[in-house]
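Worked example 2:
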Amino acid sequence: MTRRLVIAVDGPAAAGKGTLARRLAAELALPYLDTGLLYRAVGRRLLDRGADPTDPVAAAAEACALTHEDLGRGDLRGPEADRAASAVATIPAVRAALLDWQRDFGQRHGAVMDGRDIGTVVFPEAPVKLFVSASPEERARRRWVEMQARGQALPLDQVEAEMRARDAQDSARSVAPLKPAEDAALLDTTSLDAEAAFAAALALVRARMQG
């Protein structure tokens, strides 16, 4: 039933989509792919070289040179990586370089894939699509707690301001803007704990699979 099944899980940062996608993948015995790591890794490669993440030529070159090892780096999270990832994600040549990689992964293995345009661009034909959201205030609080645990002491209001700025950039970009697919099931996790969110997501996925 799940052979080569692709489940698309989209949404903004810190909405809980990554945690949900990983748990759904384990529950359904499917591979999991965090597609956001591709853009973070491209951004990090640029930062390593002192290049500007908004430079389309440099960014496209790093996207084409991306390796699987780049996805395992430990420095792909945090405000600097967030900004770089959001910048390279607006560049059409970067998205084109990474699109075939994502599609090949899903077509060969089946997968639960999370990102921002899985259901709208990468796999618009996916039979199961979720769009996971939460209020900006709650998402900022979650990210702030994560950062505190990693020893990154930034003020909560700064975390929220940066998150709102990234939301605006991701939603306004001309290429693959952040938005729900027309046939996506919507899940707001603002008032849900991890278990309640997973139960709701699993119920939505099973309903779509059976439908």
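The two ends are 13 Å apart (CA to CA). The chain has a mean pLDDT of 93.
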